[in-house]
Structures are given as structure tokens and as C-alpha cells.
Write a structure and sequence with these properties.
It holds the Pfam family PhoX. This is PhoX family phosphatase. InterPro entries: PhoX (IPR008557), TAT_signal (IPR006311). By secondary structure, the chain is mostly beta strands. It has one domain: TolB, C-terminal domain (Neuraminidase). The protein has helices at about 55-60, 90-95, 105-115, 215-220, 320-330, 385-390, 390-400, and strands at about 30-35, 65-75, 80-85, 115-125, 130-135, 145, 150-155, 175, 180-185, 195, 260, 270-275, 285-290, 295-300, 305, 305-315, 335-345, 365-375, 375-380, 405, 405-410, 420-425, 450-455, 465-475, 485, 500-505, 510-515, 525, 540, 550-555, 560-565, 590-600. The strands form six sheets. Strands 13, 14, 16, 17, 18, 19, 21, 22, 23, 24 and 25 form an eleven-stranded antiparallel sheet that branches. Strands 8-7-12-11-10-9 form a six-stranded mixed sheet, with no helix packed on it. A hairpin with a 2-residue loop joins β18 and β19. It is globular, with a radius of gyration of 23 Å. The protein starts with about 30 loop residues before the first strand and ends in an 8-residue tail after the last strand. Bound molecules: MU-OXO-diiron and calcium ion (CA) (3 copies). The site of one calcium ion has 4 residues, from loops.
Length: about 600
């Protein structure tokens, strides 16, 4: 397979066609299995799943709901740790007889809180294959649930302990219970996992009763300040009053961070790193720059929000010694946070919102990273470092960052250092009173999204300037507003709403989708990003009805592709009794993690 050389692993699999089947579809020559699903044992001795009779105590030991990020960290050739985010819950698909959030029992609310968070599960390889399954016997000392209900997190960095983060329960502002809406993430070069707290706003009520000076800040993060109960609220305040901002106005400030968990140290408290800023974090992915500093790339998934990067003060220490490990665990605690300003190189008149390529033949240009905070020093007028880090969106507004089409997963290729951004869609682009189309976000009412490639100047990931282009403008290739790096569009798969990105061992880019606006099921795609096959996008997999495709994760030996099937059967009006999907067991829908491998044991994709 020539692992390690960019572009050396040709993607020769036969693409699968778009479909609306209630099953998981993989290419000819591949097989797949469900690794773990909602309710399965995580902590040894967890009670068996019992539909309709699940307790919060049981759920706290079982695999959570709506798996999103997937990371697989090798222990040795035979064993690995699976680390998964549980972003949110669908109570209508979890509890028989569901009528409304208001009608849930307090214990059901607590089940939902315990179904949020993360799971760490020891896996073993099925001998000589790319298939992996949970270890079912023995101590499984790493197996662990992190929940919104009970897990304590330590706040680190310049905003930890600040007035914005103090509450009645935590007067020092340094310890938070729980993590919320963990969406994408990344595996760090030092063997930990980062996880993004995304749409934390939906868990809070009482913004109308918060102090007046806090209301604009709450509102900028999507928390209503004019009504008591925003529609769609999860009603968690019924189980824990800290979710009522009229009583605890700072509690919301304790979510929206990047979380770091060390799956190899079950005793260690996971941490929330304030140095990486607070917004609707999709995730974070790290690369070690040439000078040894580590750089984390991050997106804020909201229409017209921003793209960020963090550069550490300290340098990465290679090796597996305990000294190196302890040192590297501090890398994300201090550094410099930047937000992106992105400019096109074509005349504005050529960007008409239709997606038509400008005269120079492609969307692209230059950009720069605007410094917001370095250590304890703020670079934003009228805001302290703690202000900037806690209300990072307001800092981005002040410095004129570029309003993007919902930046989701942002990930550097570890082979080339180039960075890929999934811009999922933006129905409001170009609408009255909203930002018009620009070269990086070139379509008004953008339904299908685009991929942005960012190349740091001098190949230095700590650089403050970069070049960029759009290698893929998504949609039906028959639609003139799409672009696949100039590749023959009759040979590429239709794609809509890119969400997560990942790389295989040879540097191919894998893209999963959420909310396919072309009407078929979501799925997973792959394309080369270097060489003559750049833009030859092919569909590798589709997920069952109503699901989005999360993860994805390709193991370092290139033998296994993991995806998370999130919210199967999430269709309006569906219920446990009347499911829109019966994946994976033929009864009612359960989110689950799937592994796909080649039957002949060869490298995936090729
Ligand atoms: Fe949870 Fe931005 O997707
Ligand atoms: Ca996502
Ligand atoms: Ca990713
Ligand atoms: Ca999404």
C-alpha cells in the first residue's frame, strides 16, 4: 500500500450508488459489523439494557446515545481503545410511550444526562482481519463512561478560575460537572483524545432571568434571553437546577470548551482547556509544527461563524517516557489563539453567489490568522484574556473574522501539513441582512457545502498567513455549481453536507456527511488530495435511514474503517413503537459504531 507516501494509496474500490435503504451499505469485497451500540456494556458488570426500564445508574455504565467522534488508539497489534463521543439524545426514540420532553420523568431526564458524554472501550482484533470487537472478559481496566451527570472536569488555562466561570457549587471556577453535546474530536500525537462541546445552548433555560449585562453574551451563543422556556429545551433543569440561568447565570460559561481525556489513565480527571477558546466547538485536530509547537485547528459550527487555530507555547516532547507524557499533557494549557480572515483573489464582481467559477478557474486566495490572545495577554480592544477566551465569538466579531458556512471538522493531513475544513452548508448565505457570498463561501442559500484546503505559508503550521482554495464544492456533479478539483465530473459521486473529515495512512481524504440535501442517505466518501486523482471523489459507504455518518476513523495499519451511525431513524413522528429505522437489530433504532474491512485483508480503499 506504500503507507506514508502522500497519494500512494490509489482508491480503487467501486463506489456505491446513492440509496435510501434502511441498512448499512459497503462496497463489493468489504464486510462490516456493529462494534457496539446504545445500551451495551462499557463498564464491566453493567446491567443488561432493558427497554423502558433503563435507569440512570445503568446508563452510566452502558454505551451512551448518539455516537459521534470515533478514535481508535492502539495498545498493541491485537488490542486498542475505542473512544467515542455521545453528542445528544433522542428521547422520542429512547423511551416507549414518549409524548413530550415535559412529560419525561426526572429519572428519564437523568438517563438522558448519563447517555451524554463519552465512552472508552477496550477492543480486540478478530485474528488476521480488519474486524474489531469489544473485549468481553477480564478486568478491562480502561473501560469507562464519562457523563453529563457525574464526571468531574478540571478547567485549565488563562480563563480557569475567572469570575465568568465561578458558580455557587464551584466558587473557585475550576471544576465542572459533565460535558455537553460532544461532537467531533481528534486523537493527539501524545495519545489523548480531544472532544468538542458544541450546541451546549440547548441545555439551558432562564436566560430571561440572567443579569442584564450577561444577556448579549448568552444571546450570541444561542441562548434565548427573552423567554423562559425556549422551544426544544431539554428540560434538564427539572433534574438539576444549575441548568436554570436565572439561578446560576455562569453555568453556561462552563460549557463550549475543548475537552481532553487521557483514555490510558482512567483515574485522571478529564480537562476543559480554556486556552482554546469557547464557542460551539465542532472538534479539534492537532499537528506538531516543524518547530515542535503543537497546533490545533478548530471550527465553530454555526452559520456565519469562524475558523480558529491554537499554537502552543511549549514544544512537543517525542517518545513514550512518563516525563514526555506528563509534559505533553500540558501543551494545550497555554498558547496563542487565532481566528481566520480569508480573502479571495478574484474580483468581487466575479463571485455572484451562483457558484460559477471565477475567471482564474477556481475559488482561492490568501488568508491570515488574527491573534486574539497569547498567554494572559489579550489582543482585542476592551476585552481581557479571560473575556476573549470565554466569549470568543464576540472577540471574533470585533476583529472582523471571516463569516463562514458552518465550519465543522477541521483536520490537518499529518503527511502534508495541509488543513481541510468541512463547511457543511448555510441556508442563510446571501439572504437580506446576512453576509453575501464571498470566494470561500461562494453560493447563496448554500445547501450542499464545500471543502476548504488551507496551506500555511512556508509549510509552517505556526505561520500567521496562508493560501487557500476550495478543492470540492459539493452537490450533484450534474449541477453546474459543483466542483471536484477539475476532475471529470461524470466520474465522481454526488455529495452533500460534508461534516467530518479524516485521513487514511496514505493521505487520502475521507469525508462523512450529515443531512444529505440531495435526498439520499448520508454516507462516507474518499478522494485523493494529491496527484492526478485529486477530486476523484467516490462513495464508500451509506448509513441507514435517518442517520448521519460520524467518525470516521481509519486505523493506522489501513485495515479498518470505523464510522459512527448517529441518530438512525431520526424522522419526525417516529417513536420506539413506530420506528423509521430498525437498524441494527431489526427492532427499534439504536445508534452504534461500525467497523468495515476488506474481506481479503488488504488495505481499505485500494
Ligand atoms: Fe454536531 Fe456540527 O455537528
Ligand atoms: Ca458534526
Ligand atoms: Ca475528523
Ligand atoms: Ca452537522
Amino acid at each position: 500500500a506504500g503507507a506514508g507516501r502522500p497519494g500512494s494509496g490509489a482508491l480503487t474500490f467501486k463506489p456505491i450508488p446513492p440509496n435510501k435503504l434502511d441498512t448499512l451499505v459497503v462496497p463489493n469485497g468489504y464486510d462490516h459489523s456493529v462494534v457496539i451500540r446504545w445500551g451495551d456494556e462499557v463498564v464491566p458488570g453493567a446491567p443488561a439494557f432493558s427497554l423502558g426500564r433503563q435507569t440512570a445508574a445503568a446508563q452510566s455504565k452502558q454505551f451512551g446515545y448518539n455516537n459521534d467522534f470515533v478514535g481508535v488508539l492502539p495498545i498493541d497489534r491485537r488490542r486498542a481503545l475505542l473512544v467515542v463521543n455521545h453528542e445528544y439524545t433522542n428521547e422520542d426514540l429512547m423511551f416507549p410511550g414518549f409524548t413530550s420532553q415535559d412529560a419525561l420523568t426526572v429519572e428519564q431526564v437523568r438517563v438522558a444526562m448519563a447517555a451524554h458524554g463519552m465512552s472508552v472501550v477496550e477492543l480486540e482484533r478478530v485474528e488476521n482481519t480488519g474486524q474489531w470487537q469489544p473485549v468481553r472478559r477480564g478486568r478491562r481496566e480502561y473501560n469507562r463512561r464519562v457523563t453529563a451527570l457525574a464526571t468531574k472536569f478540571e478547567l485549565t488555562g488563562p480563563a480557569a478560575g475567572s469570575a465568568w466561570l465561578r458558580t455557587a457549587a464551584d466558587p473557585k471556577g475550576r471544576t465542572v460537572i459533565g460535558t455537553l453535546n460532544n461532537c467531533a474530536g481528534g486523537v493527539t500525537p501524545w495519545g489523548t483524545v480531544l472532544s468538542g462541546e458544541e450546541n451546549f445552548n440547548q441545555y439551558f433555560v432562564g436566560g430571561d432571568g440572567a443579569p442584564e449585562e450577561q444577556k448579549p453574551k448568552l444571546a450570541r451563543y444561542g441562548i434565548p434571553t427573552d423567554v423562559r422556556h425556549p422551544s426544544g429545551s431539554r428540560k434538564w433543569e427539572r433534574a438539576d437546577e444549575r441548568f436554570d440561568l436565572a439561578k446560576h447565570p455562569n453555568e453556561a460559561n462552563r460549557f463550549g470548551w475543548i475537552v481532553e481525556i487521557d483514555p490510558f489513565d482512567p483515574q485522571a480527571k478529564p480537562r476543559k482547556h480554556t486556552a482554546l477558546g469557547r464557542f460551539k466547538h465542532e472538534g479539534a485536530n492537532v499537528i506538531v509544527a516543524r518547530n515542535g509547537r503543537v497546533v490545533a485547528y478548530m471550527g465553530d459550527d454555526e452559520r456565519f461563524d469562524y475558523l480558529y487555530k491554537f499554537v502552543s507555547d511549549k514544544k512537543f516532547m517525542p517518545g513514550k517516557s512518563s516525563v514526555a507524557r506528563r509534559h505533553n499533557l500540558t501543551l494545550l494549557e497555554s498558547g496563542t489563539l487565532y481566528v481566520a480572515k480569508i480573502e479571495g483573489d478574484s474580483p468581487a464582481a466575479e463571485i455572484d453567489g451562483s457558484g460559477k467559477l471565477p475567471a482564474d478557474g477556481g475559488f482561492g486566495g490568501r488568508g491570515r490568522w488574527i491573534k486574539l490572545v497569547s498567554g494572559n495577554r489579550s489582543y482585542v480592544d476592551g476585552m481581557t484574556a479571560a473575556d476573549v477566551l470565554t466569549f470568543t465569538r464576540l472577540a471574533g466579531d470585533k476583529v472582523g473574522a471571516t463569516k463562514m458556512d458552518r465550519p465543522e471538522d477541521v483536520e490537518p493531513s499529518l503527511l502534508t501539513g495541509k488543513v481541510y475544513v468541512a463547511l457543511t452548508n448555510n441556508s442563510d448565505r446571501g439572504k437580506a441582512g446576512k453576509a453575501p457570498a464571498d470566494e470561500a463561501n461562494p453560493r447563496k442559500s448554500n445547501k450542499h457545502g464545500q471543502i476548504l484546503e488551507l496551506v500555511e505559508d512556508r509549510g509552517d503550521n505556526t505561520a500567521e498567513t496562508f493560501a487557500w482554495s476550495l478543492p470540492i464544492v459539493c452537490g450533484d456533479p450534474a449541477d453546474a455549481s459543483t466542483y471536484f478539483a477539475g476532475y471529470d465530473k461524470t466520474k465522481v459521486s454526488p455529495i452533500s453536507c460534508p461534516d467530518n473529515v479524516a485521513f487514511d495512512a496514505t493521505g487520502n481524504l475521507w469525508i462523512s456527511t450529515d443531512g444529505n440535501a440531495l435526498g439520499s442517505n448520508d454516507g462516507l466518501f474518499a478522494t485523493a488530495v494529491e496527484g492526478p486523482e485529486r477530486g476523484h471523489l467516490k462513495q464508500f459507504l451509506t448509513v441507514p435511514l435517518g442517520a448521519e455518518t460520524c467518525g470516521p476513523f481509519i486505523t493506522g495499519d489501513n485495515r479498518s474503517v470505523f464510522v459512527a451511525v448517529q441518530h438512525p431513524g431520526e424522522v419526525s413522528g417516529a417513536s420506539v413503537e413506530n420506528p423509521a429505522s430498525t437498524w441494527p437489530d431489526g427492532d427499534f433504532a439504536k445508534p452504534g459504531v461500525v467497523v468495515t474491512w476488506r474481506l481479503d485483508g488488504g488495505p481499505v480503499g485500494s
